[in-house]
# Entry
Amino acid sequence: MSEVNVLVNKNIGKKKNTSKKLWTNICKYKYLYLLILPGFIHLLIFRYATMYGSIIAFKDYNMFKGIFESPWVGFQNFRDLFNTPKFPLVMKNTLIISLLKMIFGFPAPIILALLLNELKNLKFKKITQTVVYLPHFISWVVFAGIIRAFLNPVDGFVNEIIKVFTGGVPYDFLGSKSTFRSLLVVTDIYKGIGWGTIIYMAALAGVDQELYEAATIDGANLFQRMFYITLPSIKPVIMTLFILGLGGILNAGFEQIFLLYNDMVLPVADIIDTYIYRKGIKEAAYSLGAAAGMFKSVIALVLVIITNKIANKIGEEGVW
Amino acid sequence: MAIKESKGERIFHVVNVILMIILMILMIYPFWYVIMYSLSKPELAMSGGAFLKPKGFTLDAYKMVFRNRSILYGLKTSLIVTIGGAGIGTLVSAMTAYPLSKKDMPGKKIFTYLFLFTMFFGGGLVPEYLLLKKLHMLDTYWALFLPGCISVWNILVIKNFYKGIPDSLEESAKIDGASDLTVFFKIILPLSKPILATIALFLAVGFWNDFFGSIVYIFDKDKWSLQAVLREIITNTQEAMTRQGITIRNENSSNVSQKTLTMATIMVTTIPILVVYPFVQKYFVKGTMIGSVKG
# Structure
């Protein structure tokens, strides 16, 4: 009954002014607004209120005065941040670790996906996939425990191997500035390589098998097929993931580093996120921490916009 | 295929299979090592080795883990947070995604942009901490799952799924006089079970694995999640154990050492995931593939 009325109203609304039409539409969709309400309130509180709260980056935040009453200080917190000797170091570490992870970690799942794609025994392929996906679901805390158990200089398994097979002295991988970053890269690849193949495998599943057959008949060997059929068909996915990766270049892997670093490797391992945590939470320098956080968010946003523009320009699909 | 493989191709296939087997061993062995070590007698385990099987056999480390107060409290927190976060997160995401999947709802564009923007820009750790403080949520379980239980990404994935549901189903229900609410709860939700299960599982794994929320937002260590407790045991063994009242006697009679205890705790934290994983793996893969389709 009311449904009919709404339909009638809608038709009348076309002739009448648009604001009336809007109102009837809103009434018509009232339950939809009700459905979106909880999620929208969550969005306002936990996303936009925190965004608003980050204005303390421009204030001298005082706990007793609160966000509103604390005095404005302009860009003073940012000046303080950029003037600490720590900050350039932290930025440098973040970029180096991120880039190393990108250089070695980005191609790894692509190569694995290509290899998985060539497995002819489907059952074996499936088992392999199941096994390599697993580390993605295990927490970094557990991995940190395992890494320590394996690399401990006293009784770690890896050091036992070194002792037995090379006769060398045990090496403190976690406490050495020269190996810590490599350790981060290797363990990051270990945890992510399998899961990283999923999107590529999905793209590969959509490739027309006749292409391969036709190429084979024309005399293309396995490697040529891989290079001229398989790779091009996942190129858009590679581009999209690369853009997302560049946008996240300031995320050097907070959980992993937070769980593995220690005072000995702090000069090479301290990244922007660990710095924010120590300053902003541990030392309660809220405004400075918020300034560092805002700096990071803004850079990330700009990077995503730029890389997406570039991708669209060179004719690849961007993220949006 | 009728065309014969070249020699190079055959070698490639053999090498490829061998590579995959090595990779699998690399992925499984660390867990195997941890399990075998945790079951070993400490005085034998001390000599090291590859632990292809336990050295001696004792469950004492596990008995000790389950006698440990902070681990039991951690288990409680982790269960509350995992179930609460996955449950609320999935339901609210499903509700939010439905209006966004409708073409002609007024304001839909604004809503969508407001949600999407938060994918690319956020307030950061410190403002979130201050907000939770203001809301008096610090030191409560809420702080551990409420802020993180809804992600725009999940909403988009569900929205894409809804778009695949034929409109005719909803239309015929509406002709029968059903409201949007009835359509959503009686038709859309039941049809979306597979995707909602996937989202719930993803959320559950995320919450189960979270340690950082506890460290930042919870001061009362009896409310720490299992992962946070495990972290303390791993990073600061001696100190953590004395505080938690675990004393390991150094007599020969003791069947537990710090390392076997750590290994057992790692296993207790990981076992729920290892047990569930093989059965739900395909849902994870499917969910990710749906998510990767641009929408």
